[in-house]
User: What shape does this take?
Amino acid sequence: GKTAVANGLLIDQIDDQTSTTFIWEHDFPMASYLATVVVGEFERIETVSPEGVLIRHYVSQSATAEFAAATADLGEAIDWMSERFGPYPFEAFGFVTADLSSVSLETQTMVLLADNMIGPRTVMHELAHMWFGNWVSLDSWQQMWRNEGFATYVQLMWETQDDPEDLQLIIESFRTAVEENDDDFPLGNPPPADLFSFNIYFGGAVFVHDLRQQMGDEAFFAGLQTYFATYGGGTASDEQFITVMEEAAGRSLRPFFAEWLGED
Assistant: This one.
């Protein structure tokens, strides 16, 4: 009577008198922390993005109405991100809800989402992770700003896509909050206890915005597309990311990155 949900695609379901076996298959490289198995009672919701990306969710009955509202623009967002960062990299995307407290994790192609965290901001943040963190993973946990800073910033880009002035106001509010925060460490070398701290998410988003301003939109997005085309399906370091963005910009960005990341 239960459904087993995992990464990738459900390719078979075998029923007998006492149990059901669900066979899932995911034919892409995946960091171990992004694997998931969730078992429960779910409604399967399936659709496609306007450009044809398969979307399938597994949602608990109590969360269906709230979930529908939070994911109303998901298909358009998948295609919007694909235009900016390169094609959606996997065979499908979706969420599985769970009776947990304040937990959401970008488990690859099937994002784990607590019932009490369902909302459009979380939806867009986790979708952005399919590129930033999943398709290209970090070669060191110390570089977490590239995962969380970009996911936070892309979420803001989506929210303010018709109002760049609003984006700038939000970024400045983040900048003030980060400056007023007591955490004092370079983004490129956070203490282990601060790996998922306020500054990594929000300071990271400010850093990404400033990088975009330094490079200009054309070079910024061209650099990101090259980054994913070059390192997709594997890992990359901050150094490799910097090299790609410098090549796209056509000039050195070392002083700018050193100021933020605390590197020489």
Summary: The chain has a mean pLDDT of 95. Residues 198-215 form the longest helix (18 residues).
